[in-house]
Amino acid sequence: MSDLTMTARSSASVSATLCRARAWLARTWISERLRAAIQAAYATQD
C-alpha cells in the first residue's frame, strides 16, 4: 500500500476510536447525572 493509503486508514481508525470514546463518555456522563438527579429527588421526598 502507498503511504497515502496507510495514512488515510490510520487517521480514519484513530478518528473512529476517538468518536467511540467520546460517545461512551457522553453516555456515561448523562446516565450518572440522571441517576444523581433521581436519587436527589427521592432523598427530598422523605
Q: Quick gist of this model?
A:
The chain is 93% helix and 0% strand. By secondary structure, it is mainly α.
Please mark out the parts with pLDDT under 50 across 5 or more consecutive residues, or reply none.
none
**How would you characterize the largest beta sheet?**
none
Order of helices and strands: H
**What is the overall silhouette?**
rod-shaped
Distance between the termini: 67 Å
SS elements, strand count:
0
Mean pLDDT over the residues: 95
**Structural class by sheet pairing and helices:** mainly alpha
Integer-rounded radius of gyration: 20 Å
Number of helices: 1
Could you describe the 3D structure shown?
The chain has 46 residues and is mainly alpha-helical. The chain has one helix at 3-45. The protein has one domain (1-46). Helices cover 93% and strands 0% of the residues. The longest helix is centred in the middle third of the chain and has 43 residues, at 3-45. The chain is rod-shaped, with a radius of gyration of 20 Å. The termini are far apart.
Any descriptors?
46 residues; mainly alpha; 1 helix; 93% helix; rod-shaped
What's the helix and strand layout?
Elements: H1 3-45
